[in-house]
Design a protein that fits this description.
alpha+beta, Trna Endonuclease, Chain: A, domain 1, 46% strand, single chain, 175 residues, 7-stranded mixed beta sheet, globular
Length: 175
């Protein structure tokens, strides 16, 4: 295993989350979770009435961009692609939804190459992820191919931030 690959990726994602939160102030506080925990961080917010919401946060940095049409685009070894979904590991969804029992709202935050930030609250999805797949994925960390089960979350269920502002709320159509 090439532990350094995982550490570099996690450090990059954490820096992106801190930068994002410094601009948008989405969380009152964020903290990393212990090594080998199933998510990358936790956070909380306090609204004007003093109510606290707690979050479990999974982070992902992606080699994709958001096109003007509202779909993501990227490239793989098989060539370019565009789509209205973003993948997440099925077991991560299960673990994070189980944490909801303990009052932690599950957030899946994706950082794209063009500075776009896409956030899913997994407990508030409106469209059931019907796309899924078992695929061979080349792991940079393990330096080998691994069989992985993925769910495809629809961008319509995500909040999207770009160029210093919220451009789409979860559940809204992309304009």
């Amino acid at each position: 295993m090439y532990k350094n690959e995982f550490e570099i990726s996690e450090e990059k994602c954490w820096e992106q989350l801190e930068e994002f939160n410094n601009v948008y102030h989405l969380f009152n506080e964020i903290a990393r979770t212990p090594v080998k925990f199933h998510t990358d961080g936790t956070g909380y917010t306090i609204n004007k009435l003093g109510e606290i919401r707690y979050f479990n946060i999974e982070l992902k940095s992606r080699n994709q961009i958001l096109l003007d049409s509202g779909v993501v685009s990227g490239a793989t070894e098989k060539g370019g692609y565009t789509g209205d979904t973003i993948m997440i590991e099925s077991h991560k969804v299960a673990d994070m939804l189980l944490d909801k029992i303990n009052g932690l709202e599950p957030l899946y935050i994706n950082f794209l190459d063009d500075g776009t930030v896409i956030i899913f609250n997994l407990s508030k999805l409106k469209k059931r992820p019907v796309k899924s797949g078992t695929m061979n994925i080349k792991s940079k960390g393990y330096k080998k191919f691994e069989v992985a089960k993925r769910q495809f979350l629809y961008l319509s269920d995500a909040a999207i931030y770009k160029n210093g502002k919220l451009i789409k709320r979860a559940g809204e159509d992309y304009i």
